[in-house]
Structure formats: structure tokens, C-alpha cells
């Protein structure tokens, strides 16, 4: 007889997630191997998640929700995943990620750093592991952040990809992250994205001065029902805003900033010059 490990859902949020997955799987009479074939992984991987030896990922949670019919419900595995991942992410960001994966239009403004949706794996690794050196997060949490960046990027590759509008402050291009070679590859990545039909990239030059509409990162998402969700963050926390009276002025300010910024052609030319100048 197979030795089935007893689960203690009270041990941690991750343990509760695994225990719930096992209960729902067994209630349907599915073996771990059968369920794994539905999710697209191995039975050993399912076992490790159920027993808490491995953490679930956002993508795994969303596949669970599709299989169990829980997508976009209060009982979704994605929502449960967000709860135990908040330790390595700002408050509000997991909720934002859920909206981002369904958005038909994405508008981003960033200062100092290249937005996550545009980062190369090497840039993301260098950035997030710098927090480990400062003691802000653990190495495991840094790896989770990098994995989430890549998962978010993969969700943009679909039959009908979203339109992505990005305004990056000039500082994003000049701050070297990960060394010159990592930064050179990152700038090349921006050029490659700008060549795609659904990406629109603009640089807000330093010469804008006081005309720059925002001084903190801002994300605006247009959802399939045409409603708009905003997300903004500080060093301490992030906040998702859905109230139309508050979001519409932000959207207007974004369009004003986009109009003041360099054209896409001029922006790509600047990025190319900086890349070629990088040793």
C-alpha cells in the first residue's frame, strides 16, 4: 500500500494550499499522475506541492482554477497563491498581476528601472538579487520574483496579445543594472520589443522637467469590458484603484505625458545610440 503523507493545513498558507489541492483532486477520483497530465507537469511535482515541499507558481494556480472551474472566483487558487506570496511582493501587486493577465491594453510609466514586462532574465536576476545583498528579501524570494517576471511576460504571448504602451523616463536607460553587458542586452531587448506591432515605446527625456506628469511608476490596464484599473506603488506598498473618478484623470495625464515624450522612432534611435555606446 502506498504510504500517504498526512497533511497539516494549519502549518502554513503553503501547506493549506497543498492540502486543499489534494482534497479537491481526490474528491474527483484523480491520481496525482492523471492530474499532472492535465496541468502539464509530473506527478512527482504535484506530490511536492501537495506536501508543501515545493511552492506552487502563479501559472500552476491558474491552471488549477481552469481545471476546477474556479477562475476569477473568491475561492480561486490564484487568490490563495497571492496570499502566501505577499511576503515577497508589495501589497496590492498580486491583485494587479491577476488583472494584467486579462488586460487588452497595458499602459506603463516607469522611472529609474526598466519595467518588469520588458526585462531580460539577466536584468531581472541582477535587480532582484541586489535586494538579497541588502537583506530585504531571501534568495528564494528573489528567485520567485524573477520567475514571476517571466511568467507575466509569457502571458502576453497569446493569439490576441494586448496593446502595450510604455513611457520610460530617460533615467531607466542610463542606470546600469547588472553591469555593462547585461545593460547592453537589455537595451537591445527594448529595440526588439519596439519592432513588434503591439508594442509602443516612448522615452520621456529629462528636458521635460516639470511637464512630466508622474513622479512615481504608474500602470493602467484596460480590461475586456473596457473598464480601466490603475496600479501605483511607493517603496512601502502598492495600491490597485478601480474607482472611475480617480482612474480617468490618471489616464488623461498618461496620454498627456505620452504626447510630450519622444516619438517611437526618436526613442528607438536614442536607445540604439546608448546601446552602441555601452562598452
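Q: What amino acid sequence fits the structure above?
A:
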Amino acid at each position: 500500500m502506498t504510504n500517504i503523507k498526512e497533511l497539516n493545513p494549519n502549518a502554513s498558507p503553503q501547506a493549506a494550499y497543498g492540502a486543499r489541492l489534494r482534497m479537491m483532486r481526490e474528491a474527483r477520483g484523480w491520481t496525482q499522475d492523471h492530474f499532472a497530465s492535465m496541468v502539464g507537469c509530473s506527478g512527482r511535482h504535484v506530490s511536492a506541492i501537495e506536501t508543501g515541499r515545493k511552492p506552487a507558481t502563479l501559472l500552476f494556480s491558474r491552471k488549477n482554477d481552469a481545471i476546477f472551474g474556479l477562475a476569477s472566483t473568491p475561492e480561486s487558487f490564484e487568490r490563495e497563491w497571492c496570499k502566501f506570496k505577499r511576503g515577497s511582493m508589495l501589497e496590492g501587486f498580486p491583485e494587479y498581476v491577476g488583472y494584467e493577465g486579462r488586460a487588452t491594453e497595458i499602459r506603463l510609466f516607469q522611472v529609474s528601472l526598466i519595467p518588469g514586462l520588458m526585462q531580460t532574465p539577466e536584468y531581472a536576476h541582477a535587480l532582484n538579487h541586489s535586494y538579497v545583498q541588502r537583506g530585504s528579501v531571501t534568495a528564494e524570494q528573489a528567485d520567485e520574483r524573477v520567475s514571476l517576471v517571466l511568467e507575466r511576460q509569457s502571458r502576453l504571448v497569446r493569439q490576441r496579445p494586448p496593446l502595450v504602451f510604455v513611457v520610460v523616463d530617460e533615467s531607466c536607460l542610463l542606470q546600469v543594472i547588472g553591469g555593462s553587458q547585461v545593460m547592453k542586452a537589455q537595451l537591445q531587448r527594448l529595440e526588439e520589443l519596439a519592432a513588434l506591432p503591439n508594442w509602443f515605446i516612448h522615452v520621456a527625456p529629462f528636458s521635460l522637467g516639470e511637464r512630466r506628469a508622474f513622479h512615481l511608476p504608474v500602470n493602467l490596464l484596460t480590461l475586456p469590458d473596457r473598464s480601466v484599473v490603475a496600479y501605483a506603488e511607493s517603496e512601502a506598498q502598492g495600491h490597485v484603484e478601480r474607482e472611475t473618478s480617480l482612474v480617468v484623470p490618471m489616464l488623461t495625464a498618461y496620454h498627456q505625458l505620452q504626447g510630450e515624450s519622444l516619438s517611437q522612432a526618436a526613442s528607438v534611435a536614442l536607445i540604439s545610440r546608448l546601446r552602441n555606446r555601452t562598452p
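Q: And what stands out in the fold?
A: The beta strands are 105-110, 163-169, 199-204, 218-222, 228-233, 238-241.
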